[in-house]
Amino acid sequence: xxxxxxDKRITHQKRTVTNDSWNHSVVxxxxxxxxxxSVNFKGGRETQSAEQRVNVDRVYFTIRPNTDVExxxxxxxxxxxxxxxxxxxxxxxxxxxxxTTRRDNDE
Length: 107
Known about the structure:
Layout: E1 8-19, E2 25-49, E3 52-63, E4 74-77, E5 80-90, E6 95-103
Antiparallel strand pairs: 1-2, 1-4, 2-3, 3-6, 4-5, 5-6
């Protein structure tokens, strides 16, 4: 892996689930760390969900090895949030490829 291509700053956000006063689960994300990465946009598609059109973009983030990143977490990049779908190991552990999706109607 050529680390010179890791030229974008992304923020790894950790997922936590807590209960509110009514004992309902509340999902929150907190910034864990900022990482150097390469960003590759792999296309998108448009789907129908709950009577609304939703754009879904697939983006690959390549990072140095990081055992703290899990598939329940997300990535913040350029003002958008990307849900991690899977984590691939590159080569013999020289890096990780985070396969993510972004939906345009997420808050």
